[in-house]
Amino acid sequence: LRLNEVRIPMHTVRDLNARLECHFDLEGEALYSVKWYKDGNEFFRFVPRDQPPAQLFPLPGVSVDVSTHSLIHNSTESQVVLKSVNLSSTGRYRCEVSAEAPSFQTVSDHGDMTVVALPEEGPRITGGRPRYQIGDTVRVNCTSGRSKPAAQLMWFINGEQADSTFLQGPEIVYTGREGLETAILGLEFRVKPKHFRRGDMKLKCLATIATVYWRSNEESVEGDKPQKAPVLESRETVPPSKSRADRVQG
């Protein structure tokens, strides 16, 4: 009896189904049972000679799908499907395979699954001004939407990741009964000529959660340009034909 692989999704989005797989080689022996445990508590047992072969044990956060679609069972000796996972489905899942007599050999392996509650909105940028001059200090915050776990935040200036010395935080704020988490990452730096490309500067904040969530927000701010003659006044005081020429030159 050999256990080849136990496949547990590392991250699963809340309210989706999760498929747990247990692949083994009986090497000529007969299968006695396959048992699944979450955090040490058994929730599913498959014994081929029992009728029916599948048996469930109630456990918070675990709802096994034993339905059948066109003669294909969702939960069998080699896989278990969990329906609509929730935050309490997070945990360590272990598959234990036992052979029939005379050997009664048992092998097991496990994997950890984290259920992710996705943010309902993307990251927000606050505190910025529409215009900066060289020498000014930029002080902005990026705040992620409420999620679990908290989103990882990254700042970019003109497409390049911000220097770590510019960052403040992250600070994590917990809210509500579910303890959803909001991350806040500050960015503070002094504006230099290199920060303006073609007269403006782009500040982008990226929020990610593992491989299941990826959202960004970008703000474009202008550099203060030298003041020209006030155009609006000239349009009011000069003849219309000339104001058109002024506009073209401008």
UniProtKB/TrEMBL annotation:
InterPro entries: CD80_C2-set, Ig-like_dom, Ig-like_dom_sf, Ig-like_fold. Pfam families: C2-set_2 (PF08205). Residues 20-108 form the Ig-like domain. Residues 217-250 are annotated as: Disordered. Residues 217-227 have a biased composition (Basic and acidic residues). GO terms for biological process: motor neuron axon guidance. PROSITE patterns: IG_LIKE. It comes from the Eukaryota. The keyword Ligase does not apply. The keyword rRNA-binding does not apply. Keywords: Disulfide bond. This is Ig-like domain-containing protein. It comes from Zootermopsis nevadensis (Dampwood termite).
